[in-house]
Amino acid sequence: MDLRTRRIANEWIITAWIAGLVTQLIRYGAAGAGIFLFGMLFPILALYILFYFHMLGAGDIKLLSAVGGFLGVPAILKCMIVSFLSGAVLSIGIILVCGNLPQRLTKFFNYFQTYFTKRKYQKKTEPVPYYDGKWGMECIHFSVPVLMGVLLWIGGFY
Q1: 8 A C-beta contact, residue 112 and residue 54
Q2: Which of 42, 107, 115, 133 is the most exposed place for a label (fewest CB within 10 A)?
Q3: What range defines the domain where residue 68 resides?
């Protein structure tokens, strides 16, 4: 869905949250509600800064939140780390294939320079989106690295 439409439907996220809550309640009884709640909230709180700077979409964070409801805090933290490492490897590979590393680094540093300049001189606190739609395959769909992280967790690699 994310690859095709650049969106992750809220219906899927809500369904996953409900399934995660039910799974935790079956597994741990009443304590499962707390495990679910903390696992669900951890990605939202930990990744908010990336959402604020428009470097990670709300759907990606909600997807990690749904996974966190199933896994709990310790496992979702590991899954997030593995997902970001997978995303880094995927991004580096794509940038090397496209041959535009200098342009991507320039865009990254210009983004923050623009944000802090606007904030200092214009008292504007809302940054412009990092993804501006002008780049092609260099902007990955983070749901793919999340899938890689989940599959590695299922496979027992961490």
Answers
A1: no
A2: 133
A3: 2-154
Please, are residues 145 and 84 in contact by the beta-carbon 8 Å criterion? yes
For the chain, the domain total comes to 1
pLDDT digits (tens, 9 = 90+) for 35-85: 999 999 999 999 999 998 778 889 999 999 999 999 999 999 999 999 999
pTM: 0.79
CB 55 within 8 A of CB 130: yes
Question: Using alpha carbons only, how large is the chain's radius of gyration in Å?
Answer: 18
Phi/psi at 127 (nearest 5 deg)? -75, 155
- Distance, in Å, from the CA atom of 52 to the CA atom of 47, rounded to the nearest integer, reads 9
The dihedral sign for the CA sequence 112, 114, 115, 116? positive
1 is written with which tokens? 């869905």
Q: Are 142 and 60 in contact (CB under 8 A)?
A: yes
Nearest 10 degrees: CA dihedral of 70, 71, 73, 76?
Answer: -110
Q: Which residues contact 131 (CB under 8 A, 6 or more apart)?
A: 54, 139
Contact of 148 with 83, CB cutoff 8 Å: yes
